[in-house]
């Protein structure tokens, strides 16, 4: 079981990351994209993050690196599930609203479409908690990722940087063309 999990992690996370690093993208762009992908990836409504990442890619264009953003979003999925409750409580603190009792009955009402006002209010609180926390999450991740990606890009970049040759080096051939 553990061997299978390690193999899966290598195929789905490590190998794509190494391919991204070998393409020679700028470390700051990779850090920006990874931080944005994780920040969007912890959005407290499950199943929406892929669409939000697509919108971010369409809006930001060449500013972000789409494969890195999507890989970071994929990596953030288990974190997303674990942060729904803290975002809910944080949103309740921000609004000063009452605490929502998380019971199996509330989940049943949501799944059957019989959600009450309290359930919708709790969803609003979770979204508000994420919205307030998102800039801080993004900023902290970006600051953390810039040096990490700088080291990783230099380690895995397969495109060697060619040194500049002096203008009249022996390997350079110059042709002069005369008008006749």
TrEMBL record:
InterPro entries per the UniProt record, alphabetical: DUF2062
Keywords: Membrane, Transmembrane, Transmembrane helix
The UniProt record lists the keyword Transmembrane helix: yes
Entry superkingdom: Eukaryota
Stretches assigned to the DUF2062 domain: 17-153
Annotated region (Disordered), positions in chain: 160-180
PANTHER family: E3 UBIQUITIN-PROTEIN LIGASE
Organism of derivation: Dorcoceras hygrometricum
Membrane-crossing segments per the record: 30-63, 69-88, 127-153
Keyword Zinc: no
The name this protein goes by in its record: DUF2062 domain-containing protein
